[in-house]
Amino acid sequence: MRIFAPIAGVFGLALLTGLVAYFGFASVMQAALRSEWGTVLVVLARAVALAGCGVGWWFLLTPKGPRPHVFVALRFIREAINALFPFAVVGGDIIGARLLTHFGTAMSLAIASVLIDIFVQVVSLLVYVGAGVAIVLDVPGPHRLSTVTFVMLAIALPAVLGFFLALNFGAFDPVVRWLVAFGEKRRWSMFAHVVDLGDRLQLIWRNHFGLSGSFFVHLVTVFFGAVEVWIAFYFMGHPVSVGAAIAIESIGQGGKAAAFMLPGGIGVQDGTMIAAAAIFGVPAEVALAMALIKRVPDLALGIPSLLLWQALEGRRLFARRKSLSGSP
After folding, report:
1. 123: DSSP letter
2. Contact present, 68 and 54 (Cβ < 8 Å)
3. What is the DSSP annotation of 31-65?
4. CB-count burial class (<10 Å; 0-12, 13-18, 19+) for 203
5. Which of 277, 280, 226, 223 is CA-nearest to residue 249?
6. CB 262 within 8 A of CB 268
7. Torsion of Cα atoms, 174 then 177 then 183 then 186, to 10°
8. Whole-structure pTM over 0.90, yes or no?
9. Is 229 exposed, middle or buried (0-12, 13-18, 19+ CB in 10 A)?
10. Beta-carbon neighbour count of residue 118 at 10 Å?
């Protein structure tokens, strides 16, 4: 498993490089450079979307959790780790839960909030992908939807149902054992305190106001993601409608979810967006340039977020050493 993630990352990068080479490096780069300030706006739009995801996470622990800005900052860190580090996507979410304990949240409650936050995000994504498919099916003329989108829906629907049943009816003992083993292996002693995870999950499920608020915010946020596509195409001189932007982005996100074994869905997400954009008459090199522009926020926002992560870890380590030394 350790060697699989780097291999998957190399495969995805090779796939993306192959797409650029196939459609012409010069043509793709020329289209991307035409975006100019559009790329900056795409980064800002991603920042707004991630902030919304943080607020959606915060809703799950209202009114007893830390303030919203804590969840927003940690959500940026979760995304940065998942996007930039070539290991299982759950890595950033586990670390996000651990960081939440730095702000007074019990480890079991932090993990429960992350699990339900992931569930709410997946449900929102399914609604989003469904809306995108409906928009595409309404487009006149012959076209084909990306097969990976239907595969994703076919797998995701029963998987989400199973996830929901596990979270609600206690079928999470294997998850608890894995988390404890994960923490012990890395000497994260706090992971030994997740034995009451089931009670914490039920506590969040019973917070109907927080759960509803979280779903609403995540749903709005996931639809807002289409703004990135709309901005990129507009500034490249190939404007599309809002409906087309939603369809292209949602199908791209579906492809990314289906290719979860690849870091950031690299290669697969880009290919599905090219296929979806073609339905709306966007040239392949322009669609690929848009997909590349959408990866700029991964670095522009991810690197500062990783530095913030290290700053939080350093502050905690300093505080622990100070406490052990008995300094005033």
Report:
1. H
2. yes
3. HHHTTTHHHHHHHHHHHHHHHHHHHHHHHTTTTTS
4. middle
5. 226
6. yes
7. -90
8. no
9. buried
10. 17
- For every one of its 328 residues, what pLDDT tens digit does the chain have, with 9 covering 90 and above? 444 444 444 444 444 455 444 444 454 555 556 667 788 899 999 999 999 999 999 999 988 778 999 999 999 999 988 887 755 445 788 889 989 998 989 888 998 899 899 989 988 988 898 888 888 888 776 555 555 555 555 555 555 556 555 555 555 556 655 655 665 565 555 555 566 777 788 889 889 999 999 999 999 999 999 999 999 999 888 899 999 999 989 888 877 766 555 555 555 666 777 778 888 888 888 888 888 888 888 888 988 999 999 898 887 777 666 666 654 5
Per-domain residue ranges of the chain: 4-38+115-297
Task: Give every CB contact of residue 195 below 8 A, 6+ residues apart in sequence.
Answer: 108, 176
| 277-281 CB contacts, 8 Å cutoff, 24+ apart | 277/240, 277/248, 278/143, 279/136, 279/139, 279/143, 279/247, 280/139, 280/240, 280/241, 280/244, 280/247, 280/248
Report the 3 state secondary structure along 217-248. HHHHHHHHCHHHHHHHHHHCCCCCCHHHHHHH
Asked if residues 252 and 272 have their Cβ atoms less than 8 Å apart, the reply is yes
